[in-house]
Amino acid sequence: MCNYITKPYIFNLSLVDNDGDPLSGEIFVATAKESGINVKLDYNISITASVKYSYVFNNEETITGEITDKNNSILFPIDPELFKEENAGFYSASFVAEVLPEG
Q1: Per-residue pLDDT tens for 24-49?
Q2: Most CB atoms within 10 A, among 14, 21, 37, 73?
Q3: Collapsing DSSP states into helix, strand and coil, what is residue 7?
Q4: Which residues, in sequence order, are CB contacts of 9 under 8 Å at separation 6+?
Q5: What are phi and psi of 29, to 5 degrees?
């Protein structure tokens, strides 16, 4: 029997509340400030690799780091002060990963 890797890595971003429960649909600014919103990264890396990442929220907050395990999650909390009525509807979160396979 042969084993094949069909996807060497998978990254999935989602919005969750402070309890880790998924959020969907439209979220009001007041609700975001009160209940908290986080961006959750789930990942699975099936190859031996060095992985560095950069996470940016609304071009105001940047978090960088390294992923050292193969399968896990990272929670990126969003500062409630970044939710402002004048920005309603114009929020963005981005995640960039640099995956360098060994060998």
Answers
A1: 767 777 777 777 889 999 999 999 99
A2: 37
A3: coil
A4: 43, 44, 45, 46, 47, 49, 51, 97, 99
A5: -60, -45
